[in-house]
Amino acid sequence: MSYTEKHENISKEDWMNRLEGLHIQRADMNKLIMNYLVTEGFKEAAEKFQQESGISPSMELDSLDDRIRIRDAIQSGRIQEATALVNQLHPELLDNDRYLYFHLQQLHLIELIRNGEIEEALHFAQEQLSEAGESDPTVLNELERTLALLAFEEPKKCPFKDLLHPTHRQKVASELNAAILKMENRESTTPKLSNLLKLILWAQDELDKKKIKYPKMSKLANAVIDSPK
Amino acid sequence: MMPIQLKAEATVTLGSLAKGTEDHIKALVDMGVVPVLIAGLGSDEVKLIEACLRCLRTIFEFSCAPVGLICQDENLPLRLLSLIPHSVSNQVCVATILAAGCKTAENQNLLCRQEAVPALAALLCSPHYKVQMPSLRCLANMCFQNQKVSAIVATSSFGGKSVPDLLVGLMARDKPSEMQMGAARCITYMHRAGAVSAEDPKILYRTLPCLVRLCKKDRPCEERVTAAETLAYLTEVDTELQRLASISNHLVPTLAELLHYQPEPSHTQAVQLTPSQTAQRLEQEVKTAQDMKQAAFRAFASLGANDEDIRKKIIETDNLMDHIVSGLQDPSQRVRLAAVRCLHSLSRSVQQLRTTFQDHSVWRPLMQLLQGASDDILTVASSTLCNLLLEFSPSKEPILESGAVDLLCGLTRRQDPALRLNGIWALMNMAFQAEQKIKSQILHALGTDQIFRLLSDPEVGVLMKTLGLLRNLLSTKPHIDHIMGLHGNQIMQ
């Protein structure tokens, strides 16, 4: 199919018209939103949304409580509390996923560094983390980056400052959340909405690879579509 | 803390320790942790039971674990089965534990008596992959070489579908390949135990194609090995299955690919390995290569067992005979055994013997193999030699030069009747229409005393072949004269 030679560049207007022509069911959208709220642990929002939309959640809302507490603990930097909660809830989870366990410990180390508790940080790293780096080179790499934070006067401005950024906490919290959902044999461990967004990124990537010009969605957060360049 | 909660916490800690290395498991087992955990299953406390089950499941995944304890007390499997309805975690653990404990025919019969089959059939229909997989393994272990249990499994059903139909469903192409493999293995065992016929469409149009597919080059190594071994077992005795398999989806070249396995070169590794990791990796690669060769040879041995055309096809595959010859000289004993079994199957082709085997100088490696071989290799190798000596073309020189006569005479003195039979049979074939000097060599090496001993052998087969040998030795007048001249006195007695 000599499609690529023949096609003309599509204008943004045409593109938007085509998009307008597609019809998405409201019920489907509501289900996606409910799935997001329930997976990520927004219990009150899920309850309210259930009242307002009539969509029932895919799991008992009370079962969200544990995950909410764990996520809260991580977002507030209380990593060891979060770890204890997970161990109570699912004793085998961290034993089976050593990499996740390492990430939790790494986050605790980061919190110690963030609070300026350098001695405790070094002590913790020596006692708990030095062995982890021995068997797995990836882990060793991440451990080295974390400890490098100690070498700088102002860690927030160093090359590894991403570790101190709040998004890192969120990343670990999501990782743990997904692992818990998997342990509970839930259907999806990440919100289906994120899969949809990934599909958009993938499709755009494929088009880019073939050097096709099209109106691209440059920012997912506000779904802004640019004119083709 | 209440005592029972303390017990549960302690059990959870043991479970954590069990997630360590094999040494940790050994230490736990040596301390007698397994009977304690089993006792814990008798409690009413749900958390304690769950913790015990999980810890037991982890321990029993290792070969050093005392799996004999599972079926030793008849009440234990019963108790385990009763715990199934309580949670998904229980289901996973119970199925895994029962699969590990099902080793002997007594185990199989016990589990069957205790109604494990309906329970497992229900678990096959679970929406959770991690429940289905150990259930498949358990059913397969129960059916293996057990006619009674296989018959019961074949007629069991759940949700309106018979277990064989459920298994076929799990072999569908959209299922994960480990699941397809597990289901195919299970139904193969049921067939070999007589519960599913060779003409059943489930075997012909589902199981066989599934196994052939899983042998393909794009599948992971372990999977290809298991698929080829299972295929070898499936087609071992039925000629029609052998025929169907040999024309399925390029099976013969696919199996030949197993013999060409090359591990990935280390420069494609993304991560640097430590020296001990590299050593481990190399060891693993050697084992994988051996597994693949063994599996391929076994599959070819089965495929070529009964049909001349199939043997021809196999022998004519590029480089196959070369691989068999190297296989006979492989450092690993199990590869040598598999290679000689393969050669044995192929040696049944009289027309091929004359040409192909000559070209590939199979003789020397075979003779080398026979020197100082273990008994199981010796039996198959001598049987192969027997067949190879049957061919009519003259060049038996290489065999004679490598000391075959003495070796075969030695076999006739062995305790094992199979070895004696092969020895005398091979000598008989060797003597057929042979030159005088060969006949003399045989007679001289064997000695008239041994011949007379063999004529009174308790095995009828041995006796018959000895008579056959005598007939061949004395087949022409000049030879008779010569032999009688040398040994006349003893013979007349």
UniProtKB/TrEMBL annotation, chain A:
Domain CTLH: 63-120
Signal sequence coordinates: none
InterPro entries named among the record's database cross-references: CRA_dom, CTLH/CRA, CTLH_C, LisH, Ubq-SigPath_Reg
SMART domains hit by this protein: CRA, CTLH, LisH
A Pfam family annotated for this UniProt entry: CTLH
Full protein name: Glucose-induced degradation protein 8-like protein
Organism: Cryptotermes secundus
Lineage: Eukaryota, Metazoa, Ecdysozoa, Arthropoda, Hexapoda
The gene coding this protein: GID8_1
From TrEMBL, chain B:
One GO cellular component term: nucleus
Pfam families named in the record: Arm (PF00514), HEAT (PF02985)
HEAT repeats (start-end): 320-356
Keyword annotations from UniProtKB, A to Z: Cytoplasm, Nucleus, Repeat
Keyword Nucleus: yes
Record-linked SMART domains: ARM (SM00185)
Gene3D superfamilies documented for this protein: Leucine-rich Repeat Variant
Protein name: Armadillo repeat-containing protein 8
Organism: Cryptotermes secundus
Gene: ARMC8_2
